[in-house]
Amino acid sequence: MSGTDFGALDAVGLNLQAVFDLDDLPDHLRDRLLNTTDSPPGLRQLILIGNAGPTLWRSVCASDIDSNDPIDAFSVREANRWLDQHCPGHTQHRLYPGHAPVDLQQLGQLAGWHHASPFKLGIQPGWGTWFAYRVALLADTALPGTAPRHTTSPCLGCIDSPCVRSCPAGAMADGNFALDACIDYRQRPDSRCADTCVARLHCPVGEANRYDTAQIRHVYSNSLRMIARYRATAEQRSPEA
């Protein structure tokens, strides 16, 4: 326990929190976070906030948020409210959501939230893959640091790999994850993964904490639109186009 009151964040579903002292981070990670952003001086800590399970989406739907990215907008708003309440007067610099080069999975590994899964989403005991990183920020706070969780990957005890077997794209058939195969299949007119991930749904870990169907559809529909825009832009830039 860190001794910090995260109750307000827990209540809205932002129920994963980690506080790192920057001096305790690996040198290369600390330098990248500080030197590649327009961060103000005096920043001492990194605060990482995530959600696990369906509560965050339900909170977003019940809120007055009006945004093209309602999950991001809501998460940032609630993180700011929490900081204003518990750390008034302190300076913060938000890294994510944003354009800073933040390796969220590396931070998740440091927090003990992230183990690799065959389909490249993070997985952890209890929650399975039904968690995500929502806010990462630097601050001049002096909060108690959080101890990392020490867990074993649920995938190590998996016998028949239902995610691999169920993937309609066969994206993990050779023991690695073939991103192009996944993307190509998702863009097919008859794709079963246009607004979901069949492999993810077949993973039994954390099944009781699965996102609501509406959230899954929202997330994967957005990602499919991003894929389409990226590929269209790439084709326009191609010298053979």
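Next protein, fold it too.
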Amino acid sequence: MNNRGYLAAGGSLIVLVLWQLVGGTGVLGPAIAGPVQIVAGLASDGADFYALHLPVTLASAAAGFCWGNLAAIGCAALVLTVPAVEKLVLQVGIASACVPLIAIAPILAACFNGPVTSAIMAAVSVFFTTLVGTLNGLRHADPVGEDLVRAYGGGRYLVLRKVQLLYALPSIVTALKIAVPAALLGTIIGEFMGQERGLGAALVVAQQSSDVVRTWGITLVCCVLAAVCFLVVAAVERFATPWAASTTAEARA
């Protein structure tokens, strides 16, 4: 372990110790639980409690993540092939990013059932990030490759498929990594709207019953879940775009 690793481990240990002192002494009030109490609460709730809620959240987040990102990539490709729609697509993307999720959640909950609401919330959460990342990647494609395809009679669609999408792949996967925690956040907010199952629904029940330890435990599980999903997408990135990693290493050198 290098010096940076020791510093990171030492900093994390200091934070945990201070957190435990604050939670154990109650100096900032009863709303803060220490790490020891949170871990004990997780053990007390057991796997059965989270097995009831975790799959529901994962299913909604995965559905929203897939559909939201597919829509974003499709809209970005449409902008490149039909430039006239760029203004409309960007306005829709900006609107999806600017409207507070908590404001549209009750409307969606009134129109759809619980899991569908959560999936739509996840899709809205990831749309703008992936749209911007994809557009940025598509527009930085190799102009020589584009000219070559055009010289052989290829149109906009063939240029997009043969050149632009390949060059945009690292940007797209990077956007997908950022979209992972956004999808989980959107899903959990959607589950606040009267659902019976899901981590968001369990979090609301724990807050209403003033179960501080369980509230912190569910929050910790959500954070760990987001981190694991992020690492999964990062592993896919290294597998799908190995040339991007080598290019970054060369640039740093």
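About the second fold: Confidence is low (pLDDT under 50) at residues 247-253.
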